[in-house]
Amino acid sequence: MRNSASASSSFATRLLSPTASTKLVSARRSPERARYYYWTAPAHLRGLTPELVRTLERAGCYALLIGIESGSDRILKIMGKGITVDQIRAQVSLIKENSDILALGLFILGHPDEEERDIKATIKLATELPLDLAGFSNYIPLPGSRSHVILRYKGFLDDLDTDKLFNYDYPFTHPRIDQATLKKYMSRAYRRFYLRPKVILRLMRNINSFNQVKTILRRVASVFLG
Predict the structure, then answer these.
(1) CA-to-CA distance for 26 and 85, rounded, in angstroms?
(2) For an engineered disulfide with 43, which of 49, 64, 97, 215 has Cβ 3.0 to 4.6 Å away?
(3) Kind plus residue range of the DSSP H or E element containing 94
(4) Beta-ladder partners of 107
(5) Tell me, what DSSP letter sits at residue 209?
(6) Residue 40 CA from chain centroid, whole number
(7) The pairing of beta strand 39-43 with beta strand 5-6
């Protein structure tokens, strides 16, 4: 996004274990090189081509972190993403059809121009895309950004708590949706995405250690229990 940043989607990113994906990498590279050269990368969907995706995988990329942000064409336009929902669907499918690279979709809930229907569309898109993992973050009006200036002028940042800019609490008063409702949608987003049989089975297959189990349980507790 141009005018804001989201909280780190640690629930999803901490589930990305290189050792869980070593087989995907070593299938296309020597085991010796795969052992040391697997990596992840952020990706903008507009620039991806089948050839590029295959090249990334051969080079050791085992996961792409995709800033999808919203499932609403209206909000995507306001954000300046330069991509539509239909294009997002096509490009995520392109990744999965041309490689075994894991696709981690990153979404933002609570953009100041969002209505509840936009948030519902985002959650729906997340569950319909062929994503391996998903992270949902609250919208953050970073000081100095255009959105921060506009929201401050309109009086929506009078209660801004800068200590909460990078966690799962909403640090400001949303113009249309109260904080309790936003938190409800955040929890719903994680439940709808992760509490599906195919996702649960995928996570179980990728568990390689007891420490990873503890990490998953801690993250689940923090998201679902508050």
Answers:
(1) 33
(2) 64
(3) helix 85-98
(4) 69, 136
(5) S
(6) 14
(7) unpaired
CA pair distance 193, 199, nearest whole angstrom:
8
pLDDT digits (tens, 9 = 90+) for 28-69: 444 444 445 688 999 999 989 999 999 999 999 999 999 999
Running DSSP on this structure, what letter comes out for residue 7? P
**Residue entry with tokens 């929201």:** 151
The reported pTM is 0.80
Residue with tokens 């996004």: 1
Neighbours of 47 (CB within 10 A): 8
In the chain the domains, ranked by start, together with CATH numbers, are 5-160+168-220 (3.30.750.200)
Does residue 139 contact residue 4 with C-beta atoms inside 8 Å?
Answer: yes
DSSP 121-185: HHHHHHHHS--SEEEEEEEE--TTSHHHHHHHHTTTTTT--GGGTTSSS--S--SSS-HHHHHHH
Two tokens at 4? 């804001």
What gap in Å lies between CA 209 and CA 38, rounded to an integer?
A: 19
Amino acid at 126: A
